[in-house]
Amino acid sequence: FGGQTGPLLSPGLFERFILPHLKRLIDLGHSYRLKVQLHCCGGFAPLIPLLIEAGLDGLHAVQPSCCGMDLKKLKANFGDSILFNGAIDSHHVLIEGTPETVHAKTREVLDIMAPGGGYVAGASHDTILEETPVENVLAMFDTVREYGDYSKEGNG
Predict the structure, then answer these.
(1) In angstroms, rounded to a whole number, what is the distance separating the alpha carbons of residues 151 and 35?
(2) Strand partners, 139
(3) What is the rounded distance in angstroms from the CA atom of residue 138 to the CA atom of residue 20?
(4) How far, in Å, are 30, 103, 130, 153 from residue 57 at the CA level?
(5) What is the DSSP secondary-structure string of 17-61?
(6) 47, 3 in Cβ contact below 8 A?
(7) How, if at all, do strands 2-3 and 37-39 pair?
(8) How far apart, in whole angstroms, are the C-alpha atoms of residue 71 and residue 94?
(9) How far is CA 130 from CA 95, 97, 99, in A?
(10) Residues in domain Uroporphyrinogen decarboxylase (URO-D) (predicted)?
């Protein structure tokens, strides 16, 4: 529902044409006592209140490089109402960075998103792209293991 510069539909159009169908799917999942998570690329922050109102449990593939997807604002405004999944920039940081920058950026994302729970660390897209250096993937995994474990004191 989002592009690089924001939602593909206004909140009004989204609410009128998409949300009723999405809500039926969310309700179906909940009828089986499942948590329902939506994969949505791009900048879609203006749609998040509608998704929460529809009962969605989680958002996958938060892309912080897209318009309106400021992690601090997302966590502050919606972190108590919906789970966020992703947010470690797979298009810029993981592909173009060094292991050191990946470590620093991953730690920064964890410091913003993990406190209070409601965050699953991962790449900002549905896959880690093949051109991503293996060292950078390992740096992300190592950083998440070190700082993203809620069971360790001081994390989250």
Answers:
(1) 22
(2) none
(3) 41
(4) 10, 28, 30, 26
(5) IIHHHHHHHHHHHHHTT---EEE--SB-GGGHHHHHHTT--EEEE
(6) no
(7) unpaired
(8) 17
(9) 9, 15, 16
(10) 6-147
- Give pTM, 2 decimals: 0.91
Q: What is the pLDDT of residue 156?
A: 61
Helix orientation angle between 71-78 and 99-113, rounded to the nearest 10 degrees = 20
Written as six digits, the tokens of 127 are 């896959």
Name beta bridge partners: 25. none
Cβ-based burial of 152 (10 A; exposed 0-12, middle 13-18, buried ≥19): exposed
In the chain, what are the domains? Answer: 2-147 (3.20.20.210)
